[in-house]
TrEMBL record, chains A, B:
<dbReference type="InterPro" id="IPR002937">
    <property type="entry name" value="Amino_oxidase"/>
</dbReference>
<dbReference type="Pfam" id="PF01593">
    <property type="entry name" value="Amino_oxidase"/>
</dbReference>
<dbReference type="GO" id="GO:0009063">
    <property type="term" value="P:amino acid catabolic process"/>
</dbReference>
<dbReference type="InterPro" id="IPR050281">
    <property type="entry name" value="Flavin_monoamine_oxidase"/>
</dbReference>
<protein>
    <submittedName>
        <fullName>Flavin monoamine oxidase family protein</fullName>
    </submittedName>
</protein>
<dbReference type="GO" id="GO:0001716">
    <property type="term" value="F:L-amino-acid oxidase activity"/>
</dbReference>
<feature type="domain" description="Amine oxidase">
    <location>
        <begin position="42"/>
        <end position="496"/>
    </location>
</feature>
<dbReference type="InterPro" id="IPR036188">
    <property type="entry name" value="FAD/NAD-bd_sf"/>
</dbReference>
Length: 511, 511
């Protein structure tokens, strides 16, 4: 893949991963070693899957009665009890679902490679849809109007291109461009902004039509553009670059039938390896291995299991309350990392009014109201009912929906959404809301490292504690993405396998 | 939908269409009238479908043994003989296909409404994919390099934003913007271009990474941006606005299983109405009706059928050679309209190297070579084999692939494509190429009206000749789109229905 560097970026997996092979293992360790893995989320199962290929004996302890962790698809009958005791059960119709955790996969993520290897069928996740809306409050003359993203982009490109085209030849630019470059730039700006021959922006069919072109004598009529000043005051254009992030550029993908098709496919590869309902109580180092104490939810009994190594994928907010033989710096690092307060609400509606009335099939509406976003479903297009995401809330500088009661979350999001889609009230059926920082065994959306955290704590968290290795999205530069969990698992698998191949080079007990 | 005008554009069907209702018809014409429709493409079947709802007695004459016309999905065993006698049979594997004609549906087209009404399942057509490439020849330092569209866009936005940000506050702009507006503009440009604090563009993770971020100690490394001058000379940026057209803005859609699911769904609504293998020979006006003479391919016999009205959807290059009772101005108009020389080639490959090696799932690569574009399939992601479109050729200012032999088309497109995807030679299996101007009963891609054609000929073509009405994409401002055929059919249906409801107001015989 080296050569692909030329293409603007390499698309090799971040680090070449040499998957352990059965042939690697000598007679001395022909059954590999026994690896105790804590957590049957993406990282834990990916580690067991890769180690298993080489003949390692893996055991996974999972506190829940399901795999996937934050990769969680809410369907009819899904129940959840938040740590404060608030309980809800999904009333979605059969076939309707929401991906409460990860919901989109970029093309360059290793996640795609696992989907291919495990036979997980993909479809497009419509992340960027020019037909979805911007809606701003307290933002000048365009306040409280829903405006198509494509319309805002066309007008913005038009005015920006006009401004630059008019001065492009002026020395005031003091740019290194040659006269020929500047001619090419001006020609480009004319196309980019759809400018008239005098390089002014007078509107464009790109922004949409007042009356659409059609058959017979209907050429279509174009609306006047918004004024540049109106647009600038609206702030809508500041949301455009949200789609430019390398993690969010089109196309993006989702598994057909729900994101949990990925953990389900991994689980299928791990028969008899996962113990469900096993709450980890202690993580101990022994002379030449590890000892894990856990409580079984079924009978409340305390049990223990020993192994040669431990891979701990437990999220840090949960891990910090588990007694473990970790060094003080490690314990301090685990305590110190902040996790995202984030959540979503799924609204089931009787009819897909966003498709029928607004002609929006998939995509995301963006607003400065605290619901932040409305996600239209990327599956079941043109069918009758649908589940959309009524808010995707990050907590920072916004109301923490997790602090509200279930009915308050629903009422607040319905009220705000109805300003964009008045059909809300008539079409609403039921909702299911998830606040990750209120969910047992997670207590947060994803690790949020500050620059100083990355300097002081992140290196410590990445160092094994004797034979215990931490893995998960929080041990990656792709926090909040499944790819972070996969990449982290692959690194820990490589490290342990290297240790095993270096006889007697296992680090001694710590803490 | 009026109010939607506020949204930047209305999304009502171009013209409100009042579908004929059974209750409209009085005793006098309780069986409606007999309508002879020429052509079982989108326009012809849509007209029969809408008239049939009201109880009209429709008969469709179709020269081919299939419906759909230019809406044509090529699959295993599909055969075609071009007008010069060149014959080919598709060797695509089962499940592989190419949409030889229309291949994408925008959200605002009436086509979507028919898909909903007829139960045609949709999936996303990946029209805009930032991971697909630009590839230019003879275009300066970046010639003969495939560069991700997202990379070109990021660098272009960076430099353009930098240029404008540096002069935004200068009076030289002489723009109507206030000081506050200009501050907002500068803040926007900083986001739009991902500029550094001194408002210069130094590259951005948006363009992609040299080494991707991953697990553990892999923050990822970013490549240097291309120089602005290199980019301008490459001309790649001039292709960016191709995605801005209102007809091509994301999201776009395609029927699951091939575009011909639309004609198949219409056909299902028209049992016993379509006569296949019927080549129209004459279109005659009678005292109070129409008489159509046709030859049946089965036995070569000449037959005729009479009716009250005729809807003729035959493409103009074919219609001009059919003897018809048309006025001279009409005959002249029919003769005078140019049709697009356009075609596609489908390449079946053993492996989806574009997905596995290039991480491109769907989308279009754009080049200044005469293949113009490479379309990656928007279905069957992550599966093994795939059919991509090796060229999409419009004829103008380019080699007309239709003038080449089948083997020349294949060789030329393989050779050019291999410059972007060297895997072509190793992975190629077979091809099927379509040149619409060489295909009997079409003889062109779509009507191409010049501004003067629209003034002088288009109005004549839209006027009924006695009881004969023309319909099809060529009678719309959406030429080349299925929506043009649907909208035109709806207008002609409305016109005929109005005539029928106005007893005795039927125009007299012409020609």
């Amino acid at each position: 893949m080296e050569s692909l560097g030329l293409l603007g970026h390499s698309l090799a997996s971040a680090k070449e991963f040499n998957a352990p092979k059965r042939s690697d293992l000598t007679m001395a360790n022909k059954n590999g070693k026994k690896i105790i893995i804590l957590g049957a989320g993406i990282a834990g199962m990916a580690a067991a899957y890769e180690l298993g290929k080489a003949g390692y004996n893996c055991k996974i302890l999972e506190a829940r009665d399901r795999t996937g962790g934050r990769n969680w698809t809410v369907r009819q009958g899904t129940t959840e009890t938040e740590i404060n005791g608030v309980k809800q059960t999904s009333k979605f119709d059969k076939g309707q679902y929401m991906n409460a955790g990860p919901a989109r996969i970029p093309q360059h993520h290793v996640t795609l490679d696992y989907c291919r290897e495990l036979g997980v069928e993909l479809e497009v996740f419509a992340n960027s849809n020019e037909f979805s809306y911007y809606y701003q409050e307290n933002a000048g003359p365009l306040s409280n109007q829903k405006i198509r993203k494509g319309t805002v982009k066309s007008d913005t490109r038009g005015y920006v291109s006009e401004l630059l085209a008019k001065v492009a030849d002026k020395t005031s630019l003091d740019s290194p461009l040659t006269k020929d470059d500047i001619e090419k730039l001006t020609a480009y700006l004319k196309r980019e902004g759809d400018l008239s021959t005098d390089y002014t922006y007078k509107g464009s069919s790109r922004r949409g039509y007042k009356e659409l072109p059609g058959g017979g004598h209907q050429p279509g009529t174009i609306d006047q553009p918004y004024s540049f000043s109106e647009l600038l005051q609206s702030g809508m254009m500041n949301n455009i670059s949200g789609d430019y992030s390398f993690q969010q550029q089109p196309m993006m993908f989702q598994p057909v039938g729900g994101m949990d098709q990925i953990p389900k496919a991994l689980e299928k590869q791990l028969p008899g390896i996962i113990t469900f309902g096993a709450e980890v109580q202690e993580i101990r180092q022994t002379a030449n291995g590890v000892r894990i104490v856990y409580k079984t939810k079924a009978d409340g009994k305390t049990k223990e299991i020993t192994g040669d190594y431990c891979i701990c994928t437990i999220p840090l907010p949960v891990l910090k309350n588990i007694s473990a033989d970790f060094t003080e710096p490690m314990k301090n690092a685990i305590r110190s990392i902040n996790y995202a307060k984030t959540g979503k609400i799924g609204f089931q509606f009787k009819n897909r009014f966003w498709e029928q009335d607004d002609r929006i099939l998939g995509g995301i509406t963006t607003t400065n109201m605290d619901i932040s976003q409305i996600w239209y479903p990327s599956y079941g297009y043109l069918s009758q009912k649908g589940v959309l995401i009524g808010y995707y809330n990050f907590g920072q500088n916004a109301v923490d929906y997790g602090d509200l009661s279930l009915s308050q979350r629903q009422a607040r999001a319905l009220n705000q959404g109805a300003k964009i889609h008045p059909q809300y009230s008539k079409e609403f059926e039921n909702s299911f809301s998830v606040a990750w920082h209120k969910i047992k065994y997670n207590e947060g959306g994803w690790a949020e490292y500050s620059a100083s955290d990355l300097k002081s704590y992140y290196p410590i968290l990445n160092e094994p504690q004797g034979r215990v290795h931490l893995a998960g999205e929080h041990l990656s530069y792709l926090t909040g993405w499944m790819a972070g969990a996969f990449e982290s698992a692959r690194i820990v698998v490589s490290r342990i396998h290297e240790d095993v191949l270096k006889e007697g080079k296992v680090p001694s007990k710590v803490g």
